[in-house]
Amino acid sequence: MADSADNDALLTAYLDGELDAAERGALEKRLLAEPSLKVRLDQLGRGGRPFGPAYDALLSAAPEARMQAMLADLVAKHGAGRQRAARSWWSFPAIAAAVAIFIAGGLAGYGVPLLTHKAPDQPGWRQVVAEYQGLTTSDTLAAIVDNAPAMSQELATIGTKLAIDLSPDKLSLPDAALKRAQLFQFRGRPLVQLAYLAQQDGPMALCIIANGRPDEPAAFEMREGYNIVFWTDNGRGYMLIGKQPRAALEAYASDLQTKV
Amino acid sequence: MGANSHDPVIAGIGAELARLWRYGLVLSGNRDTAEDLVQATCVRALERSHQFQPGTRLDRWLIAILHSIWLNEVRARKVRQGQGLVDADAVLVFDGLRETETNILAAQVLREVQDLPEVQRETVYLVYVEGLTYREAAETLAVPIGTIMSRLAAARAKLAGLGIDTKADAETARLESGRHGR
Question: What is the pTM of this model?
Answer without folding.
Answer: 0.55
